[in-house]
Specification:
Shape: elongated
Distance between the termini: 86 Å
Structural class: mainly alpha
Helix content: over 70%
Number of helices: 6
Number of domains: 1
Number of strands: 3
CATH topology: Protein Binding, DinI Protein, Chain A
CATH architecture: 2-Layer Sandwich
CATH class: Alpha Beta
Strand content: under 5%
Largest sheet: 3 strands, parallel
CATH superfamily: Skp domain
Strand order of the largest sheet: 2-1-3
């Protein structure tokens, strides 16, 4: 029985040797994505859009009213300069009006902010997906042209947080090739747009 099992293993090994081991290439997708010009542009755009949210008139009004509330509260709490009863009632009434106004504004602003953040996140996910699709397509193209059977993202991790590639001796790393190909692809449309010979003649 043991001899039979050993024979099967030997035959399997011989078959693998005859077929040849698969040629595997590695690509560091995270590094490529981080280095894309489109990634830097996206991050800058997202940062500007989030800053614009905080400059919304509702946010400005809310900050102004909060400042007024602090001032009114300081007047009410100032023991060195206590208010007379009539003034205290007036300031307290004004404080309550401002507090309710601040609550209303805060709800309006938070609702506006939530919707804008959803829009920003949707655009960010779409842009990321497009960039990753370009990386994957370019990696596949280069791997096919160079005769590789498989391409693995060496920057990826499993669900447990452990890297997919734990060890690779003398790896065939296509990362730099993919970067160069993507840069060339991005440069071509710009070159065509700036070429006066490509302009339509009347």
């Amino acid at each position: 029985m043991k001899r039979s099992a050993a024979t099967v293993i030997s035959l399997a090994a011989m078959a693998m040797t005859a077929l040849g081991a698969p040629k595997i290439a590695l690509v560091r997708v995270t590094e490529i994505y981080s280095g894309l010009a489109s990634t830097a542009e996206l991050q800058k755009s997202i940062k500007e859009e989030r800053a614009t949210i905080m400059r919304d008139p509702r946010a400005e009004d809310l900050r102004r009213i909060i400042g007024q509330l602090r001032s009114l509260q300081e007047q009410l709490a100032n023991k060195d300069k206590p208010l007379d009863e009539a003034t205290s009632r007036k300031v307290s009434r004004n404080f309550e009006i401002k507090r309710q106004e601040a609550q209303t504004l805060q709800k309006e602003f938070e609702s506006f902010k939530t919707e804008r953040e959803k829009e920003i996140n949707r655009r960010m996910v779409t842009a990321m997906r497009e960039s990753l699709d370009r990386i994957v397509a370019t990696s596949r193209k280069l791997a096919t042209e160079q005769g590789f059977d498989m391409v693995i993202d060496s920057s990826g991790n499993t669900n447990t947080g452990v890297p997919f590639v734990l060890y690779s001796k003398n790896p065939n790393d296509l990362t730099d090739n993919v970067k160069a190909a993507l840069q060339d692809a991005a440069a071509k449309p710009a070159a065509v747009a700036n070429d006066p010979n490509t302009a339509k003649k009347p």
